[in-house]
Specification:
Layout: E1 3-12, E2 18-26, E3 31-35, H1 64-78, H2 85-96, H3 106-123, H4 128-136, E4 145-152, E5 165-170, H5 175-195, H6 219-233, E6 242-247, E7 254-255, E8 260-263, E9 266-268, H7 270-283, E10 286-290, H8 298-308, E11 313-316, H9 324-333, E12 338-341, H10 343-346, H11 349-362, E13 365-369, H12 379-386, E14 390-393, H13 400-416
Parallel strand pairs: 4-14, 6-10, 10-11, 11-12, 12-13, 13-14
Antiparallel strand pairs: 1-2, 2-3, 4-5, 5-6, 7-8, 8-9
Helix pairs in contact: 1-2, 1-3, 2-3, 3-4, 4-12, 5-6, 7-8, 9-11, 12-13
The structure holds 2-phosphoglycolic acid and zinc ion.
């Protein structure tokens, strides 16, 4: 069945800013849709998200140019053809012709790429994750272990906490059980925060955003203490039933001019920051630290990996940006031992699959991730299962655009039983 028509529209993401939705109309008049997310702590080396920059419209964040690129520049090359992920991603790359997708925009390109893979699966009458597993050559279809962001800081919340994400990862076998554990801890954390007089409104990814930093207390330590308390209060044992994961998002804390990291009013050199992680790892059941250092500091990452990498998962987000050549460099240099996978950092599904494959072949772990600005599109849930990527993060078990991903995992798990 061929693609009959392609149209796109500007929709809003979970922060209320514009993003791209692509619609493919197939020969039987059915329509397949895909929409793309948008980050706040965006890495310098990510593929370019095209914004209109018209200050009169949505603070310059409109995506009408990206929409026009889909309808006028991309559609003519895809219409009247059978949807085919690999071939069409190749066409998209050729049409764009740039290293960083700045011509057509990664937001335009990814929306088309996801819509194409969805259409192809639909025509084959396959669940999307099963089709992805076929394309990827995945032998083991696997529900992921999930990092749930339950306490938020950095640029995702106005909490005054420097680290961006404090996550819990329940480690039982089934996703269903782990989701339940996360929900219980999340709701009990709310209770405990309230009891101590903290605000329980949530950040962009659904985690609570309490102002823990009043009286200049050490907010990061306090946040970790709250994770321990909420876990225990819920009847689970930290380190046994549930482990903790951090996304420091250190690029956002780095003062380029003075070459120093700023945690509130405290200054940290690279060495001192690695020392702080070491202390935290010894005091709390921390399984994983993402972006412990900034995106350009390969030397620092090397030292951090040597110091902490044998016992702790060190995930590279901004430093790798789901880009195979950067990941390759990291593998060669022995930097990090895990990679965050965000399709919109690289811009096509095919390149995302290549990045996951590269990591797997090198023995690096992979964590498929949402962005802080999301839509209700659940592509990443199928992606993580279909590639057997192993780990996943899509925020708190709260807010529609986050639970959409978890609800899709429930549906997939049920289908596999
Ligand atoms: P972002 O944050 O989507 O705002 O970039 C997510 C992350 O840093 O992992
Ligand atoms: Zn990150």
């Amino acid at each position: 069945m061929k693609i009959k028509k392609i149209f796109a529209r500007q929709i809003l993401d979970s922060r209320g800013f514009p993003t791209v939705e692509c619609n493919l109309e197939l020969g039987d008049n059915s329509v397949v849709k895909a929409s793309v997310p948008s980050g706040a702590s965006v890495g310098k080396y990510e593929a370019v998200e095209l914004r209109d920059k018209d200050p009169q419209k949505y603070f310059g964040k409109g995506v009408l140019t990206a929409i026009e690129n889909i309808e006028k520049k991309i559609a003519p090359d895809l219409i009247d053809k059978e949807p085919n992920l690999q071939e069409m991603d190749k066409v998209l790359l050729e049409l764009d012709g740039t290293e960083n997708k700045s011509n057509l925009g990664a937001n335009a390109i990814l929306a088309v790429s996801i819509a194409v893979v969805r259409a192809q699966a639909k025509i084959l009458n396959l669940d999307l994750y099963k089709f992805i597993a076929q394309v990827f050559g995945c032998k083991e279809i696997l529900l992921p272990k999930v990092m749930f962001n339950i306490l938020s800081g950095g640029v995702h919340a106005d909490s005054g906490i420097a680290f961006q994400e404090f996550m819990i990862m329940p480690i039982k076998q089934s996703f269903d059980d782990n989701l339940h554990t996360a929900v219980v801890i999340f709701q009990n954390l709310k209770k405990l925060l309230k009891k101590e007089g903290y605000c329980v409104s949530v950040g962009d990814e659904g985690g609570f955003a309490p102002r823990l930093a009043k009286n200049k207390e050490f907010a990061e330590k306090k946040a970790l203490d709250f994770l321990v308390k909420a876990t225990q209060y819920s009847g689970f044992e930290p380190g046994k039933d549930v482990v903790f994961c951090l996304d420091v998002a250190a690029t956002q804390l780095y003062d380029d001019q003075n070459e120093i990291y700023l945690l509130g009013d405290k200054k940290y050199t690279t060495e001192k920051l690695i020392g702080l992680y070491d202390d935290f790892i010894h005091s709390y059941p921390i399984y994983s630290i993402e972006d412990g250092l900034q995106e350009q500091d390969w030397d620092g990452w090397k030292i951090m990996t040597e110091k902490l990498g044998s016992n702790t998962q060190l995930v590279g987000d901004d430093i790798f940006v789901t880009n195979s050549s950067r990941i390759k460099k990291g593998i060669e240099l022995g930097i990090a031992n895990a990679v965050l996978i965000k399709p919109n950092q690289i811009g096509t599904v095919t390149e995302t699959l290549q990045a996951i494959k590269l990591c797997k072949d090198a023995g690096y772990k992979t964590v498929v991730s949402h962005r802080s600005g999301e839509t209700n599109d659940t592509f990443i849930s199928d992606l993580v299962v279909g590639t057997g990527a192993g780990q996943f993060k899509a925020g708190a078990p709260c807010r529609g655009e986050r639970v959409a991903k978890y609800n899709r995992l429930l549906e997939i798990e049920e289908g596999l039983r």
